TrEMBL record:
Protein name, as recorded: Nucleoside diphosphate kinase
EC number, UniProt record: 2.7.4.6
Keyword Manganese: no
Catalytic activity, reaction form: a 2'-deoxyribonucleoside 5'-diphosphate + ATP = a 2'-deoxyribonucleoside 5'-triphosphate + ADP
Pfam name, any one: NDK
Catalytic site: 258
Native source organism of the sequence: Cyclotella cryptica
Family listed: Belongs to the NDK family.
Cross-referenced HAMAP family: NDP_kinase
Keywords: ATP-binding, Kinase, Nucleotide-binding, Transferase
Amino acid sequence: MGLYNIILNQTTITLRETQYDIQYPQSATCIICLLFLQVNLQLFTLRRIDQSSPVAVIYINIFTMFSVATRSIASTTARRAASRSSYGIRAASSAAARNVASAPIALTALALVASTVVATASVDSRATVHCEKLPVYGVPGTNRERTFLAVKPDGVQRGLVGDIIARFEKRGYKLVGLKMVWPTMEMAQTHYKDLSKKPFFPSLCKFFSSGPIICMCWEGKDIIKQGRQMLGETQPLASKPGSIRGDYSIDLGRNICHGSDSPEAAAHELEMWFPEGVNDWGKTVDSWVYES
């Protein structure tokens, strides 16, 4: 089967096997399990996890013990293969066969248990990312600026909620508040009170309260201005392709979504739609979105 080199922190573990190994798949199983552990170990580097952390230390120790046991089994298998070839013995004793066959199974179980323990510990460590408590409207002019966005009844009915959320997430913005609400007429009138003198105000409020809407609070650098640009112009026909309205809407009265147009509007709307507050949490990938 050749020469296998497993490199861990500049330490090389070499497993030498003979041509007879093809007759004994147990050693191959050990190699596969060892490689499985190594791949998981490499995830620590890819996910930028400190290898001196308790989780990493546990995993490295398990990996080391597993590699030693695998090397021992591989050597034993090779010796048995050579011995059988030299003396023409076709079968070993049943006890020896059981020992060789059961070892990889036990080691495989160890690998799976170890991976489960590490995965659970990793999730627990990532789940404890907290941020300082902020007002619901965040801190305008910083990376923690916040805005209110809503998917209107037409966007909900057309199944566009997921795509709208995905666009903001892929841009790098953070969702800190999300819920579905069926507005009353009074809620619609309060939300659009700055348009109360407009002739279309009654029909606007009637439509806004005609079905469920999706209320969202998004956080990030310049999110109020950038959010409006991502939504597109209020008049869909004037919106550029690539914007939400430019891609999904035609009529002014069915323009899919709403976004705060100023810090003052964002504060008013977020306090109205999220009186219970939003979630102050930190994204572990923010260092890949912002320089500082």
